[in-house]
Design goal:
The complex is a heterodimer of chains A (271) and B (366). With 271 residues, chain A is mostly helical. Chain A has helices spanning 2-34, 37-40, 53-60, 63-95, 99-111, 118-127, 137-158, 162-170, 175-204, 207-212, 220-225, 235-266; strands at 228-229, 232-233. Chain B folds into 2 domains: 4-233, 3-Layer(aba) Sandwich (Rossmann fold), CATH 3.40.50; 272-354, OB fold (Dihydrolipoamide Acetyltransferase, E2P) (Beta Barrel). Classes of the chains: A mainly alpha (271), B alpha+beta (366).
Chain lengths: 271, 366
């Protein structure tokens, strides 16, 4: 009994520590976003008069436009990745298309330093005359989002029993019909996880954004970085901007966290 | 309702021939059971009929229709898989209606038909549940209901009971038989369990390495096995099979030297005696030199006794430990028989099976 209670206390402490590690910085940013520039100079100051000034500044800056651009890029990237990645992951899981070499390539795509691909993407944007626009970002983001989407979905497809597809075919569906009506619903959690995870990768990307679309078409992370001006860091405005950028992701992640864990850790990849 | 015919079916995976020259007819309205050890080609045969495996050579007909290359969805069949293959994202009712909806039937027409089979299988209180909230037996019923609802020309069962526990397996077996009799749909049932095959089948087809070993009613297959394979596969406990030669009306087992009187035969044979058609008596009870003693075998010893309830399974061994025989005797006979006791055995009249030791085929007239 004593041991049991001890282990429970230990576990609670451990969890509390984990929560604090994550929540404290967030809280600090929330507080910073409500402080006036004068109050910001003292990071430990808890008692202050909240101000909406930073939020107003953030909203009045290029931030909303950048947010919209990031959203467009993220949605297009995820959509393309799903259209290609869902059938791709299915083929890999079911038929072992490409075998181990293709699996290796998928893994490589995730560990490849993005710098290696910068020149090809710059050249591509010139050829397509998309340089300087967010359209230049889309192929670049797909290059790292698509492998992740496929990687994540392989495990989900592999866990769908073949007999369910066969049953659907016997029950009167075509091959494609069985895929749509039976296989896809079974991997829906995985597709949800892939959406959110892929979107967050695109949403948070700064590297390609910095090189491919510096100027006026910059995306959210660059805009946030822009609050580090030559006059110093606009800490309050930046805090408000960071919150604006991260809250949507936090909410989305909260809703799919169970599937995310299942997708990333629960399913081994089978070839 | 339709008769199903397999005509000289071959199935090859690369160099491996899984099914060779299979000719088989499933008479209209009957239940045929394919039985055999794993790898004998029984499941492949079923899957070829379902359209889930291609046919290397030969043709398959359902009634007058040649379905050899037809897509599974167009064969008008229903199948129950070993793992039930329920659609876990749909409720029980939606699962049952799936084949009807796939054919384009409207909800208004599909629901009453689903209700009918739900009723038949006692699923009515469960229709709103998801498959994950059902027990194994209930899942099995849903799978059967889904097969029933479309009123197909052929039912296929792929080891449907092997995931259930022993008691439930026996209950579901009865239920499948009852439903098959009631709807009278031509059915093909695959199992590795010979007992299941014997209890369910109108016709048992014993398969061995891609070929039909024997085909017949359960009674025929049991009482006149056509070859050594069928003899050893059908029946539990397994038939005793010994190779040896018969001379002077005595069978002499070649490895153990066991002698069993055997009139009216000569030459080398494989002798088969079912454990349940063997008399066993303590050697001390048989008077030496008596005329009656000439019908008994040479001596064996009881090495193990397994209680089967009303009967006891005896493992008998020769003195040189080279032959092990199984015999089943009524439990009340066990007073004078215990482990270690020397005994002699005698096949019951007409219960001897003789096979050609080379081809394995049954000798005619025995």
């Amino acid at each position: 009994m004593v041991e049991q209670r001890f282990s429970r206390i230990l576990r609670s402490t451990w969890i509390a520590a984990g929560i604090l590690t994550i929540v404290l910085p967030m809280m600090w940013i929330v507080i910073a976003s409500l402080k006036s520039p004068a109050d910001l100079t003292d990071a430990t100051k808890i008692a202050f008069t909240p101000t909406g000034e930073n939020w107003a500044n953030a909203l009045a800056s290029g931030l909303p436009a950048a947010l919209l651009r990031s959203l467009i890029v993220g949605v297009v990237v995820v959509a393309v990745s799903l259209v290609v990645g869902v059938p791709g992951a299915y083929a890999l899981a079911r038929y072992g298309v490409g075998g181990t070499p293709l699996g290796f390539v998928l893994l490589m795509a995730q560990v490849l330093p993005p710098a290696v691909l910068v020149f090809p993407f710059l050249r591509l944007s010139h050829l397509l005359k998309t340089n300087g626009t967010i359209a230049a970002l889309i192929p670049a983001h797909i290059s790292f989002v698509l492998p992740v989407v496929v990687w994540l979905l392989i495990g989900f497809f592999a866990s769908v029993p073949v007999s369910i597809e066969e049953q659907a075919r016997i029950d009167g569906k075509s091959r494609l019909g069985a895929f749509w009506s039976v296989v896809i619903p079974h991997v829906r959690p995985g597709i949800g996880a892939a959406c959110v995870f892929g979107f967050s990768l695109s949403w948070n990307d700064m590297f390609y954004s910095l090189i491919l679309v510096p100027g006026s078409a910059q995306t959210l992370p660059l805009t946030i970085a822009g609050f580090n001006t030559f006059r110093g860091i606009e800490l309050g405005t930046m805090s408000a901007a960071i919150l604006l950028a991260s809250i949507p992701m936090l909410i989305a992640t909260f809703f799919i966290q169970k599937h995310l864990v299942q997708g990333l850790g629960g399913n081994g990849v089978k070839y | 309702m339709a008769e199903v015919t397999f005509r000289s079916i071959h199935k090859r995976y690369g160099d491996v021939e899984v099914v060779s020259d299979l000719d088989l007819t499933l008479p209209d309205g009957t239940l045929t059971v394919l039985v055999g050890p794993s790898g004998c080609g029984k499941t492949t045969t079923l899957r070829m009929l379902a359209g889930l495996e291609s046919v290397t050579a030969g043709s398959i007909h359902i009634g007058p229709r040649d379905v050899t290359t037809l897509d599974p969805s167009k064969r008008d069949i229903a199948m129950v898989f070993q793992n039930y293959a329920l659609y876990s994202h749909l409720t029980v009712r939606e699962n049952i209606m799936f084949p009807l909806r796939a054919k384009g039937m409207g909800k208004a027409e599909a629901v009453p038909r689903a209700r009918m089979v739900e009723d038949l299988l006692g699923l009515t209180p469960l229709v709103e549940r998801k498959p994950s909230a059902l027990s194994g037996g209930q899942q099995q019923r849903v799978a059967i209901a889904r097969a029933l609802v479309r009123e197909p020309s052929v039912f296929l069962f792929d080891e449907p009971l092997s995931n259930l526990d022993a008691q439930l397996r026996v209950d579901m077996r009865t239920e499948i038989l009852r439903i098959q009799r009631e709807v009278g749909t031509t059915s093909l049932y695959v199992t590795h369990d010979q007992e299941e095959a014997m209890t369910l089948a109108d016709t048992v087809v014993v398969m061995d390495r891609g070929r039909i070993g024997q085909q017949g009613t359960p009674q025929e297959v049991y009482s006149t096995p056509a070859n050594v394979f069928t003899a050893s596969f059908v029946g539990s406990p397994r038939m005793n099979l010994m190779e040896g030669t018969v001379s002077d009306q005595v069978f002499l087992a070649s490895d153990s030297g066991l002698r069993i009187p055997l009139p009216r035969v000569t030459g080398s044979v494989t002798l088969g005696i079912r454990p349940e058609s063997m008399d066993v008596m303590a050697a001390s009870e048989i008077p030496e030199g008596d005329s009656a003693s000439s019908s008994w075998s040479s001596e064996l010893r009881i090495v193990l006794m397994e209680n089967l309830g009303p009967r006891v399974l005896l493992q008998l061994e020769t003195a040189n430990r080279k032959a092990l025989l199984r015999a089943v005797v009524p439990a009340d006979r066990m007073r004078d028989l215990t482990e270690g006791v020397p005994v002699r055995v005698r096949p019951q009249p007409g219960q001897v099976h003789l096979f050609d030791p080379v081809s394995g085929r049954r000798f005619d007239g025995e």
